[in-house]
Specification:
This protein is an all-alpha fold. Helix content is about 75%, strand content about 0%. GO terms for molecular function: efflux transmembrane transporter activity.
């Protein structure tokens, strides 16, 4: 269950990172056009860096959990955990 949770956290962190990368690009264009201040741009940049760190932490935690799980199960080859599809 923890593996599935870590997998989903990693995927969510990646989506957040990609969204913030887009926001950073938009903020850069706005800064170049004078629509926002340097301070506002730096705030968006800081947010982007924080989400990058969150993504890297989530990915690292997921990989560590997979290694622990494969050791526990005695599996030597690489495997991945898939998220089942379901409707709420």
């Amino acid at each position: 269950m923890v593996a599935l949770s870590d997998r989903m956290s990693s995927e969510l962190a990646l989506q957040t990172k990609l969204s913030n990368d887009t926001l950073l690009h938009i903020a850069r264009v706005k800064l170049d056009n004078g629509a926002i201040t340097e301070y506002d741009y730096r705030q968006v940049e800081l947010q982007c860096l924080n989400t990058q760190l969150s993504y890297e932490d989530a990915a690292k935690n997921y990989e560590a959990l997979l290694r622990r799980l494969s050791t526990y199960l005695g599996i030597s080859h690489r495997f991945d955990i898939s998220v089942p599809s379901f409707n709420l």
